[in-house]
Amino acid sequence: MAKVSIKTPKGEIIIRLYDETPLHRDNFLKLAKQGFYNGTLFHRVIKDFMIHGGDPQSKGAPKGKQLGSGGPGYTIPAEFKPEYFHKRGALAAARLGDDANPQRASSGSQFYIVWGKTYSEGQIGQLARQMRQQAAQSVFNDLVRERRAQILQLRKNRDQAGLAALQDELEAMTEAIMTEKGLGKMSDGQKEAYTTVGGVPFLDGQYTVFGEVESGLEVVEAIQNVATDRSDRPQEDVSMTVSILGEE
């Protein structure tokens, strides 16, 4: 099991990387060994949500510079694992949005650490329903993209009956995929974590979670509480130095 240290002006955060997400684990370790992260900033901080860093363009960035688009020049395939979710302290990979990135591949370097908030059981029930609808819509949209040529032909032919039949087929396929892969379900573990520890449940299944804070959660809390500008950049830079603590 690999662990890394993230030292900041607010203190040190110790992160445990998951072996079950090896692509993200190995990439993070590679960049840490290279000193890639040293001097970069937590350039986007949102209270009660998360702290976001890893943009190489943030090194020595002047005040007011727009950040968040830098990286090592590659992405990492998503590694979604139902057992790893956005509880407080989770380490997850940032990425481009679905329109430009339908496969939800992760940024090669940018990451965030979750803070979030705690939810009541009623709120979690409502969120669970919304998350299932979101997951179903995502699966359906993927199927639509795969059948785009067929849809365009049906529209060209003004075949309304054919379009209706295809709609029914894709909806049935969506339900089958949701059931087969267990998508859109909130486990008992998730519900317990979000009602006690806290986190950001609506990001589950959208971004790869590949580690968690083992110690230094109070440092994450301190960073997410700093004053920020209109671009969510801390008014006083929060830089980091990342090093590998060892593998067990």
What features would you highlight for this structure?
248 residues; Cyclophilin; globular
Radius of gyration: 20 Å
Instruction: Using the alpha-carbon principal axes, give the shape.
Output: globular
CATH architecture of the largest domain: Beta Barrel
- Write the element-wise H/E pattern from the N-terminal end onward: EEHEEEEEEHHHHEHE
Which segments are poorly predicted (pLDDT under 50) over 5 or more consecutive residues?
A: none
Number of beta strands? 10
Describe this structure in words.
The chain is α+β, with helices and mostly antiparallel strands. The chain folds into two domains: 2-118 and 197-247, Cyclophilin; 126-181, no CATH class. It is 35% helix and 20% strand. The protein contains six helices and ten strands; from the N terminus they run E-E-H-E-E-E-E-E-E-H-H-H-H-E-H-E. An eight-stranded antiparallel beta sheet has the order 3-4-8-6-9-2-1-10. It has a two-stranded antiparallel sheet with strand order 5-7. A hairpin with a 2-residue loop joins strand 1 (2-8) and strand 2. The longest helix has 26 residues, at 121-146. The radius of gyration is 20 Å and the shape is globular. The model has no long low-confidence stretch (mean pLDDT 95).
In short:
With 248 residues, the protein is of the alpha+beta class. It contains 6 helices and 10 strands.
